[in-house]
Design brief:
It contains seven helices and no strands. By secondary structure, it is an all-alpha fold. The protein folds into two domains: 3-66; 80-129. The longest helix is centred in the last third of the chain and has 16 residues, at 114-129. Pfam families: HTH_32.
Length: 130
């Protein structure tokens, strides 16, 4: 490992935007000073297999290889395409969130928990207030 790479990793560990990125930087630094993958995993809450994967990715792509790639997060259950269907369901039965949720589920073919549906309604309400 070069001095420049070490400095980039130390900077990433101290100032990285996400916890995952900081832990990946830390894992590479610990491996560089001779820790086993298993020990590194214990300190960074990763499996030794993940540690080895991140080391390989760092060797191939450098510091930018430790960043989370686009599209690697969970997709939302409900998005802006559901807004009209939710509004229609609410208009048909303003008194019962449960009935409105059931109507939306039938119209969209999707399923969501009560809390997800409630959060989506809250976001709609905030948009209306603005």
């Amino acid at each position: 490992m070069t001095d420049r790479q070490r400095l980039q990793l130390e900077e990433g560990f101290r100032k990285g935007k996400s916890h995952a990125f900081r832990m990946r930087c830390r894992a590479i630094l610990l491996k560089a000073i001779g820790f086993t993958s298993k020990k590194v995993g214990e300190q960074t809450e990763m499996t030794h297999i993940s540690v080895n994967s991140w080391v390989k990715r760092f060797e191939a792509e450098g510091i930018h290889g430790l960043e989370t790639r686009p599209g690697r997060v969970r997709k939302p259950i409900m998005d802006c395409t559901d807004e009209k269907k939710v509004r229609r369901a609410i208009e048909n039965d303003r008194q019962s969130m449960k009935k409105a949720k059931e109507a939306w589920q039938q119209a969209s073919g999707k399923e969501a928990s009560d809390s997800t549906f409630r959060a989506f309604l809250s976001a709609l309400a905030r948009d209306i207030d603005v």
